[in-house]
Design goal:
With 458 residues, the protein is an alpha/beta fold. Helices cover 39% and strands 16% of the residues. It has 3 domains: 90 residues, Arc Repressor Mutant, subunit A, CATH 1.10.10.10; 106 residues, Aspartate Aminotransferase, domain 1 (Alpha-Beta Complex); 233 residues, Type I PLP-dependent aspartate aminotransferase-like (Major domain) (Aspartate Aminotransferase, domain 2, 3-Layer(aba) Sandwich). Strand 7, helix 8 and strand 8 form a beta-alpha-beta unit. Helix 5 crosses helix 11, helix 7 packs across helix 10 and helix 13 packs across helix 14. About 1% of the residues have low confidence. The structure holds pyridoxal-5'-phosphate (PLP). The site of pyridoxal-5'-phosphate (PLP) has 13 residues, from helix 7.
Length: 458
């Protein structure tokens, strides 16, 4: 493989890096010809692209200039290249003998409205505050921040998170026990990878997260959820739960269940992974603190910026019991050394200046208004909504779940059924749809609710 980096003419202006593979079994001229022909056929050299001067390519390939000139001549004769005085040697237009490009496959129309759960309203991303935070953080940071760092993440962010999580969620955290991750999904994979035994996961729950755990090689066991939230695992080394607002039923974990789960962890030596994915969004009364605050030696607390800022930020965090710190840090080191640094510094600044709190307060008001509109609309349809007190989604029980998606598609609406959330959909005990109300931009929300009303009624 020969890498050719150009330093002059248009080829260089375009910043093109071209890798030519010279076959050692061919003659030198044959090798250059074949490599150029392949690059043109594969589209790596586009029609009209100007090739380097023979002298320069010869130097970079370590062959005689005549060899390159002869290869160019041959490819001109074959019709791959054109050569005109003053215009240099260029890749010829596509040969006419090529079959006409196939017509692109029809693309399914994109839904006009999206009420699937999972994402916040990313049009509300605090761009100006994030820019200011990034600028301030980078201006203050020594160059060493761009080197390899602590696998737990930047101490600035871990310190800011320890304060923030203690203040807002009652988490007992110290910077040494925090590991910054690439979102919750990596946090989950890291914890699962160091668990020694089956992992109990809520049923219903998020299928993607079940897959993430299964891919670490751990057996996933269903953990039934009822009106009080998750039940107690029977034979598991870890249990993954969403206490603030169960995903997808929306039920908050009942105090008796909080107690039962922490007692299970204490007595069995198992670990409880608390996924606090939307814990910041509680509307009608003071949020219940994180379960971790009551049993910090037995609960791994996990949070994420995906609902507060946006999933594109890819920042999450774990607060670990002491005995879990070393194995998880080791797993993180071997996964990716550590999470990208500039975003961590920006988030630390955002938290430290309380711009993060202000942003969340603004979002909470907006999502609460949306929640109220949605609940009123569902009441008018005579359909009860569950899990309305928190988070960014509700569960709408519906007797005919199977018919809803087609009707929704007909109204340009993307909607998520409850069915896909069961470990075994054929043993589903309830039917319904999971309505995420954060995703549409503000101006599009009422139209999305109209489409929802059509989809839910025959
Ligand atoms: C149940 C649950 N947990 C956690 C998350 C956050 O995941 P991540 O931080 O990987 O974006 C989500 C996002 O949709 C979620 O639905």
């Amino acid at each position: 493989m020969v890498g050719v980096r150009s330093v002059s003419n248009e080829w260089a202006v375009a910043g093109v890096d071209l890798h030519l593979e010279l076959d050692p079994a061919s003659s030198r001229r044959g090798g250059v010809e074949r490599a150029l022909r392949e690059a043109i056929r594969a589209g790596r050299l586009a029609p009209g692209a100007r090739l380097p001067a023979t002298r320069r390519l010869a130097v970079e390939l370590g062959v005689a200039r005549n060899t390159v000139a002869a290869a160019y001549d041959h490819l001109v004769a074959e019709g791959y290249l054109t050569a005109r005085r003053g215009a240099g040697t260029r890749v010829a237009p596509l040969p006419q003998t090529d079959p006409p490009a196939a017509a692109p496959a029809p693309v399914a129309p994109r839904p006009r409205h999206d009420l699937t759960p999972g994402s916040p309203d990313v049009s509300a991303f605090p761009t100006a505050a994030w820019l200011r935070a990034t600028r301030r953080a980078l201006a203050a940071a020594p160059a060493s921040v761009h080197g390899y760092g602590d696998p737990r993440g930047r101490v600035e962010l871990r310190t800011a998170l320890a304060e923030y999580l203690g203040r807002t969620r009652g988490v007992r955290a110290s910077p040494e026990r925090i590991v910054v991750t690439s979102g919750y999904v990596q946090a989950l994979a890291l914890v699962a990878s160091v668990v020694d035994g089956p992992v109990a996961m809520e049923d219903p729950g998020l299928p993607f997260h079940r897959d993430v755990v299964a891919r670490t090689g751990r057996r996933v066991a269903p953990l039934p959820v009822d009106d009080r939230g998750a039940t107690t695992p029977v034979d598991a080394a870890a249990a993954v739960v969403t206490p603030a607002h169960q995903y997808p039923t929306g039920v908050p974990l009942h105090p008796s269940r909080r107690h039962a789960l922490t007692a299970w962890a204490r007595e069995s030596g198992g670990v409880l992974l608390e996924d606090d994915y939307d814990g910041e969004f509680r509307y009608d009364r003071q949020p219940l603190g994180a379960v971790q605050g009551t049993a910090p030696d037995h609960v791994v607390y996990a949070g994420s910026a995906s609902k507060t800022l946006g999933p594109g930020v890819r920042l999450g965090w774990l607060v670990l019991p002491p005995r879990w710190v070393d194995p998880v840090v080791d797993a993180k080191l071997h996964a990716d050394h550590h999470t990208e640094v500039v975003g961590q510094l920006a988030l630390a600044d955002l938290i430290g200046t309380h711009a993060y709190d202000r942003h969340i307060r603004g979002c909470r008001l907006r999502y609460r208004r949306r929640r109220d509109l949605l609940v009123r609309r569902l009441d008018d349809l005579g359909l009860p909504a569950r899990g309305v007190s928190a988070g960014l989604h509700v569960l709408v029980e519906h007797p005919d779940e199977a018919a809803v998606p087609a009707r929704a598609a007909g109204h340009g609406l993307a909607l998520s059924g409850l069915r896909e959330h069961w470990h075994d959909p054929d043993r589903a005990t309830r039917q319904g749809v999971v309505v995420g109300y954060a995703t549409p931009a503000e101006h599009a929300y009422r139209a999305a609710l109209d489409a929802l009303a059509h989809a839910l009624t025959a």
